[in-house]
Write a structure and sequence with these properties.
DNA Cyclobutane Dipyrimidine Photolyase, subunit A, domain 3; Deoxyribodipyrimidine photo-lyase type I; globular; 47% helix; DNA_photolyase_N; 18 helices; 5-stranded parallel β-sheet; binds flavin-adenine dinucleotide; single chain; FAD binding
Length: 449
């Protein structure tokens, strides 16, 4: 009988264990459900999703059926329509996704078969010797490596797609300037191949530099599942023996970043509440300010701190921000503006095309000092020094803040020291970093008693 593959965070055909399971059992009907409860995020994410779906439709020889509605209802109808024997999925690990899948399983008369997950190692699998979950990255990553993962799944030679089932057109594409060409399966793999061809050798050295194109930019593809991390990990192992010692350090570093993604998914699996609440109680009782004018200025990239503003403008225009700048902007909101990380995380989650609940919320908590490997709360990023260090010639700032393009070199990080530095409409600083740093430390001291 027919096998439905319900695509969610796995919008690809290669290295797709659930698709393999379905294709082995019979004709395959690929389905994507526009679930009003899940879609509806920012334009960059919606546009990335559209790009990935268009490619998936082509990869499935136009068999892909898109329908809108509550998944349990849409799937019941489709099961009846095609007389399906089973609905196949990649297992989900986010709290909302798990609840939804449990509901769907209840509602269906045929099995909901989960094969694989969007991770090399399924969240919840790697544990301490006593069976408890890890709370710190380094021991987790060691155990994760020791656990290992399967080789990428091979797609059967000829999938028999069940074609001609009626659906709705793909969701409309919102207007966006976002760089989304790598959202689809083929283009993500092309980007990856080009990255492996050279840039990855310098990853360790370049990954902290937002002025360079030194990272893979695969976060959107990983978010949508247009590539599976296991594909990337297998390629790293394959090329490593032929690379120099220095390059091998970079490959290890890249593998560690994939491990961070897996760690945060594991943490969320064990602690679903940490998506929108403090993971740890390090800062219980902390006094925060309600989001006000400062928060608005931060969202809009007009704080008067060039490195922070460049990041926030890259975010709103591209739906992506460099990791170093995510840390600096998050620190600015939580420690200079004293706003609870949840407000910032919510804004990021809406704006980011790669917005991923586990990585976003725990990335925020890492910076805020409430997370797993809490960076010490008292380590407050200086937004000017960070800019000078990681954007040494000021190129990143000038790219995103046109009002500062008349300032050459690193001086762009302190326009207030340049004659007419703010003359092109760039705002004055909304706060004094030294004062707010001390304020953050005072509030911390009050909590620590
Ligand atoms: P690369 O440097 O090429 O890394 C390769 C892959 O490793 C990334 O695509 C990503 O999947 C993973 N990775 C890298 N760094 C991290 C990290 N610190 N934590 C978890 N995974 C990582 N990443 C998201 O994918 N979605 C988010 O919503 C998200 N929100 C974040 C919020 C904050 C406040 C912070 C500090 C970090 C956040 N990150 C998030 C992590 C990181 O910033 C991005 O994964 C990275 O910038 C994506 O760019 P890239 O693909 O070029 O990364």
């Amino acid at each position: 009988g027919a096998q439905i593959v319900w695509f969610r965070r796995d919008l690809r055909v290669r290295d797709h264990p659930a698709l393999v399971a379905a294709a082995t059992a019979g004709e395959v009907l690929p389905v994507f459900i526009v679930d009003p409860a899940f879609v509806g995020a920012g334009t960059a994410r919606a546009a990335a999703l559209r790009t990935a779906l268009a490619a998936l439709s082509t990869a499935t020889e136009d068999a892909l059926v898109v329908r809108e509605g509550a998944p349990e209802q849409v799937l019941r109808e489709l099961v009846d329509e095609v007389g399906a024997d089973a609905v196949h999925i990649s297992g989900e690990s986010t709290p909302g996704g798990r609840r939804r899948d449990a509901r769907v399983e209840q509602a269906l008369d045929v099995p909901l078969v989960a094969t694989g997950t969007p991770y090399a190692v399924s969240p919840g699998r790697v544990r301490k010797a006593d069976g408890s979950p890890f709370r710190v990255f380094t021991p987790f990553s060691r155990a994760w490596l020791a656990h290992g993962w399967r080789a990428p799944a091979e797609l059967p030679d000829a999938v028999r797609w069940l074609r001609g089932i009626e659906g709705e057109p793909l969701p409309a594409v919102p207007e966006t300037e976002a760089e989304l060409s790598w959202a689809a399966e083929d283009t993500a793999l092309e980007r990856w191949a080009a990255f492996l061809d050279g840039p990855i050798d310098d990853y360790d050295e370049h990954r902290d530099r937002p002025d360079l194109d030194g990272t893979s930019r695969l976060s959107i593809a990983l978010k949508l599942g247009t590539v599976h991390p296991r594909t990337l990990l297998a390629d790293l192992d394959r090329i490593a023996p032929r690379r120099s010692k220095a390059a091998q350090r970079s490959l290890k570093r890249f593998q560690a970043e994939i491990a961070w993604r897996e760690f945060y998914a594991d943490v969320l699996w064990h602690h679903p509440r940490s998506a929108w609440r403090d993971f740890g109680d390090q800062l219980r009782g902390m006094a925060y300010d309600e989001p006000g004018e400062g928060f608005e200025a931060w969202c809009e990239g007009r704080t008067g701190f060039p490195f922070v503003d460049a990041g926030m403008r890259q975010l709103s225009s591209q739906g992506w921000m460099h990791n170093r700048v995510r840390m600096v902007t998050a620190s600015f909101l939580t420690k200079d503006l004293h706003v609870w990380w949840v407000h910032g995380a919510r804004f990021f989650q809406e704006q980011l095309a790669d917005g991923d609940l586990a990585s976003n919320s725990h990335g925020w908590q890492w910076t805020a000092g409430t997370g797993t490997d809490a960076a010490p709360y008292f380590r407050v990023f200086n937004p000017v020094v960070q800019g000078q260090r990681y954007d040494p010639d000021g190129e990143y700032v000038r790219r995103w803040v046109p009002e500062l393009r008349h300032i050459a070199g690193a001086a762009v990080h302190e326009p207030w020291k340049v004659a007419d530095g703010c003359a092109q409409g760039y705002p004055e600083r909304i706060l004094d970093h030294a004062v707010e740093r001390q304020e953050a430390l005072d509030r911390l001291a009050a909590v620590k008693g």
